[in-house]
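Cont'd.
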Amino acid sequence: MPATDIAVIGFAQTPSVRDDARSEVQLLVPTVAEAIEMSGVDRREIGFTCAGSCDYLTGGPFAFVQNLEAAGAWPPIAESHVEADGAWALYEAWVRLQEGDIDTALVFGSGKSSPANPLELWPQQLDPYYLAPLGVDPASLAGIQARALLESGKATERDFAEVVARSRRAARSNPNAQLKGDVDADALLAEPYFSSPLRRHDLPPITDGAAAVVLARGDKARQLCSRPAWIRGLDHRVDPHQPGMRDLTTAPSATLAARKAGYDGGPVDVAELCAVFSPQEIILREAIGLPEATEINPSGGPLAGNPVMAAGLIRIIEAAARIIDGSANRAVAHATGGQLLQQNLVCLLEGE
Amino acid sequence: MTTTSGDKKENLVMEHLVSLTYHEKLTPTLNRFVDELLAGRIVGHRCPSCSRVYVPPKGYCPLCVVATGPENEVQCRDRGIVTGFTIITPVAYYGQKETEPFVYASVLLDDADSPLGGQDIVGIPHEQIRMGMRVRAVWKPEGERTVEGISNRGWGGLGSVVEAFEPTGEPDAAPEEYMEHIF
């Protein structure tokens, strides 16, 4: 029986930029400090710390260890790390808080995509026998998924362009967004293909960035935050690793994660989806079962800024921000990992 | 693909060599450090909260979790104390260039709170190197200095700008002077 009295009470994120000259830990230091300050928690009293990052991005073994300095080298802390998006670090912290012996947890996620070539790097996460040696890159895989979606009749290329146009327009009010502007679908459809049927704008930008969240339990959350963003449910599931073994036009693990998180398709004010390629938003909307009226990615989503290993945590931040500022009362946040929505995490957030 | 003999079946062995390319610029913090180093100066950052001095500068104080910048820069004297050392006897492996035993010492500069790791000690037989020994930097002549080996994920190196440290001949420092700074 999951505890229902754990909430987001503080958060911060760096602006999403193409190339931030600072190191990953230098991105994290002010971000973590800002999240802690917003929460009102004394850093020295935080009960648990969990970070998400990827050493392949940084290009060095144990690169994640240096990031820990952002949590403070003194006093000693209880901490953990996931080689995954910070949203999975938040999951671990949420599970840890349910033990009931601590009241607060710090979570952060960070990644710099600028030093490496994503098309060269990401095939390494595929299976080492059939796909990695072929060098199948994320854009090519996403093209295959988009093609499957078109052939299924579930979406058109115009639908993809509409997702991008809406994301870029929404991002205009997000000071942290990397790509923003008043673009329309017709202009986007006139662009050449990059990975057919995807155009360059259907892909996420290459981004450096970091994000941090402070969680608190029960009375501690109420005492520190006038309107905490309560985590009503949180779950993550996986689909088969081999893309050839599944229907790429659906994401059964996203459906299962949503249901296990307690979301049954009912009314929800806002959804922040980690759809890193535009067709994936269409797949996720259906898989999670979001109603027409739900506002999708008012932040602009990952198409407007995709700091890998922080992008999923930022979805939870953006959803929680809307709860905390009172502009939404029920929100769904989604994070993803692996290729083509293979791993999915869904977080259901509510006001009091 | 190559094959090796198994009990009954032949085992298939597939080689999968991976090469990944990274283009990483030094952080602004290290860029400034390197410029100063090439000019013969060692600079660090003094934490505005606890006054500890980090060399090379990190751009933050990990104890106070506050960012530091150019406004916190201080210059350090190029002499200090050996706070710890290892004599390494190299074994042959791919990429190993050393063939003779060599020193890996931590040196705490007089004006710093964080020791420099991986420093060579010259001018004294290996068996006489000791904790507390006072040393000074041996600078490469200008024009021969390179900052190869200094990277964002380094552990406090001085590249080849400072070749090594050598004993000053002064009396050893008492353990109390450096016991809080051992790395």
